[in-house]
Amino acid sequence: MIGSFNPVQFLSLTVVTSNLIIAGSVRTRLQRLTDVMNEPDMDHLVLFEVTFMEPGSRRITASAGVAQIQLGDMLFVHTAGPTESGHEMRTPKQPTPAVLLAPPYTIEGNIHLPMEEELQQAVDSLRDRFMAVTGAKYWAYGVAESPKEVDLLVVNRARAHVAIPVGTEWRKAGPPEVGSRGGHNPW
C-alpha cells in the first residue's frame, strides 16, 4: 500500500450512483481521495456508518454499519467536508475548464491535464480509473437534484463523457525556460 506509513484515518464520503446517494466513511492510510479511488486491484469500497438515499428527495432507503459499494456503479465521489489540497502534483498539469456528463448528472469544474503539445493529446492521456475535478458543481435536474458545489469531485472516467468548451486556451508543452536549471541553458 502506497501510504502504509501514514496513520489510519476515516474519510467521510458522499458516493453518487445513477440511482443512489450514499454517505459513509472509508478507512484508509492514503492522504488523497484520488489515491484511494485509484488503488490497483480494487473493485469496491467498504464504507462504515452508511446511509443510502434517493437522489432529489434524499429520502433514506437503508442504513448499515458496514456496506460494500462497487466502484463500477459509482458516478463520482466527494468528501463530506473540506479537502486537504494535494498541491504536490506528481507531474506538471494545467487546470482546464470542462463539462462532464455522467447521466443523469452534469458536472462543471476544472480537470487537470498533463502538459502536452496539443489539447487533444492531453485529453487522450487520461488513464486513471477516477479523475479529479476541482472547483466542481454538479446537478441532475431530471431527478430533482439541485446544484451542489464541492472543492474536489472524483469522477469515474468509465461513466462520464469529458467535454472541453470551445475556445479553451491551451498552453503548449515546451522546453524548460533558460535559467530554470541553475542559470545555464540545458540544451
What does this structure look like?
There is one protein chain. Strands 4-3-2-1-5-9-8-7-6-10 form a ten-stranded antiparallel beta sheet. The mean pLDDT is 86. Helix content is 6%, strand content 48%. It has helices spanning 33-37, 119-124, and strands at residues 9-17, 21-28, 44-53, 60-70, 74-79, 93-102, 105-114, 130-140, 145-156, 161-163. It has two helices and ten strands. The protein is mainly beta. The termini are far apart. It folds into two domains: 9-79, SH3 type barrels (Roll), CATH 2.30.30.100; 93-163, SH3 type barrels, CATH 2.30.30.
Q: Helix- and strand-based class?
A: mainly beta
The percent of residues in helical segments reads under 10%
**How many strands, what sense, and barrel or not for the largest sheet?**
10 strands, antiparallel
Instruction: Please give the count of helices.
Output: 2
Which sequence of strands runs across the widest sheet? 4-3-2-1-5-9-8-7-6-10
| CATH third-level topology of the largest domain | SH3 type barrels
The first-to-last residue Cα distance is 39 Å
Order of helices and strands: EEHEEEEEHEEE
Compute the number of strand runs.
Answer: 10
For the record, what CATH class of the largest domain applies?
Answer: Mainly Beta
Could you provide a short overview of the structure?
With about 190 residues, the protein is mainly β. About 5% of the residues lie in helices and about 50% in strands.
